[in-house]
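JOB MANIFEST
job_type = single_chain_structure
chain_count = 1
residues = 121
[input]
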Amino acid sequence: MAASAGDSGSAAAAQAKDDTYWFENYASRPYVGAGEDYVDYAPAFLYGVVWYQSNPERRFEDCEGELANGWDSARAGSPLDWTKAKPAVRDAWYRVSDLEARAEVGTQRTVVDVAGGTNPG
């Protein structure tokens, strides 16, 4: 499916909002170690957002192999290997999918946090 110019503009705006969100919140995520820098995680967050936007009908778990294979090309200088980047990619994927689901139905749903707990969405 081809994206229109309007779609790419709205996708860019959504990505900018996500970048702001992650910049403000990354340090509180359970997979981020003390003193780790946002610039190391930013490519992983973006990767999760972009992949979800391109594959909204798929689940993260169903794309995981493809995501892992593409990480080296997408990492944009990030020192994180796939094992370390994966929770951030998954976190970004589920954040975008949850926001989209809430916008479509106008309700909150419970999502599974990458740390294994649940959070009201």
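[summary]
Confidence is low (pLDDT under 50) at residues 1-6.
Helices lie at 5-25, 38-54, 60-74, 82-105.
exit_status = 0
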